[in-house]
Write a structure and sequence with these properties.
By secondary structure, the chain is α+β, with helices and mostly antiparallel strands. It is 30% helix and 17% strand.
């Protein structure tokens, strides 16, 4: 894949239990309630049930930070990349894993949820880490060693995504990420 807006990609593999240190649905849903997409997009809360319990079983999470200057283009580029990663051949495609994109779903120009319509592309839509209750700012600081930047003149924004996967798929996924990301990728070293 050609990256036009991504300047750097940082990732770190963490255990499922470590990811759940940042699972703070009550706090995060408070942030979500102030968002204009709240209740209007299928991948945004509130949900009828806890969405996280519908995900494929997983042992590990790969937290990925895509860095660049235009957040909206960066977000779109990271989502396209994750969809491509899902479609790869080999061991990873044969196992269960779940990708979580940065921010809300943007597949449709206008989501039909607010008009009572079902999702038109349920196989393509993806939830985000924050929409299911993970505190993304804390994940960035603690796991990636990077801070999220908010509304400054010309910051380097970060779009944060995740891949939840079983142990048997981990090595193949990391190898595929390195071959796809090329020189843009670096493994996070922050502990």
């Amino acid at each position: 894949m050609q990256f036009n807006h991504t300047e750097e990609i940082i990732y770190k593999v963490i255990l499922k239990n470590d990811l759940f240190l940042y699972y703070k649905p009550n706090e995060v849903m408070g942030f979500c309630e102030s968002c204009p997409n709240y209740g209007k997009i299928w991948t945004c809360p509130p949900y009828e049930r806890e969405v996280i319990h519908t995900f494929n079983p997983f042992d590990y999470a790969i937290i990925i930070g895509f860095k660049g200057k235009d957040f909206f283009k960066l977000k779109k580029e990271s989502t396209v990349y994750l969809h491509e990663l899902e479609g790869m051949n080999g061991n990873v495609s044969e196992s269960n894993f779940t990708t979580l994109v940065a921010g809300n779903c943007e597949i449709c120009e206008s989501c039909g949820k607010s008009e009572g319509q079902p999702c038109l592309f349920p196989d393509l839509m993806r939830y985000s880490l924050e929409s299911v209750g993970f505190h993304v700012s804390e994940i960035c600081d603690a796991v990636l060693g990077e801070s999220l930047l908010w509304q400054t003149e010309h910051p380097k924004y970060m779009a944060v995504a995740g891949i939840l996967l079983e142990e048997k798929a981990l090595d193949a996924m990391v190898e595929k990420m390195h071959s796809s990301f090329g020189d843009l990728v670096r493994k996070g070293s922050h502990d």
